[in-house]
Amino acid sequence: MVYVLKIGGSLLNYPADLRKLCKTIESISLEFDLALVPGGGVFADTVRSVYSNLSLQEEVAHNMAVLAMDQYGLLLHSFIKSSRLAQGLESVSECFKDRKTAIIVASNIMSGDSKLPRTWDVTSDSIAAYVAQCLDANALLLVKVIDGLTDGISKSVLKSVKLNQLDEYTDDMCVDRHISKILSEKTLKCFIVNGRFPTRIEDVLRGRESVYTEVVQD
Predict the structure, then answer these.
(1) 148: left (phi over 0), alpha (psi -120 to 50) or beta
(2) Which domain holds residue 177?
(3) CATH code at 28?
(4) Extended strands (E) in the chain
(5) Which of 17, 88, 126, 177 is least enclosed, having the fewest CB within 10 Å?
(6) For 36-88, what is each residue's pLDDT tens digit?
(7) pLDDT tens figures, 166-195
(8) Strand (E) positions, 96-206?
């Protein structure tokens, strides 16, 4: 069973938790076929700052931010000994065959015919969703530093949200502005889960109850 995990760049702010997450991924990769899509984190934040200060064209800045994802990917590769950099989608199956976790080189994906817009509306969330669809993945896990999406009044974590409600969370940067369009194109299970608690990722993969938000089709 193939699972795509977007590993949020915000986890770089929690080094011990990130290392623990990588250890968990290394352990469960013996049972599950895992493809990781790195976030941008501080590397992409630098690009955003340069974009603003120098008034860069949005497409140029977006291409730079995708390269920032590759930098994070190199970091994850150094932490996960059972991983391999997947230069393209066609090489992912080879990683699985060799029982390796595939770390997607995002710049190669975006330089191909991904049909994804080169704007700030498209971040690693959308790229991960696109990769998951291309791989016919069993599920997409958006691994962030939030427990899930929350109710606007009580702030309690929602067990599920409908796809047509997802855009309500873009202003809070919980998800990017384009992912709902990708998820609407093809049925794909999608979960938002906190990477600071690696057992929750394992719970999702094993179909166990845990703390997360599932995005369900309308």
Answers:
(1) left
(2) 2-216
(3) 3.40.1160.10
(4) 2-7, 33-38, 83-86, 101-104, 139-144, 160-162, 189-194, 213-216
(5) 88
(6) 999 999 999 999 999 999 999 999 999 999 999 999 999 999 999 999 999 99
(7) 999 987 789 999 999 999 999 999 999 999
(8) 101-104, 139-144, 160-162, 189-194
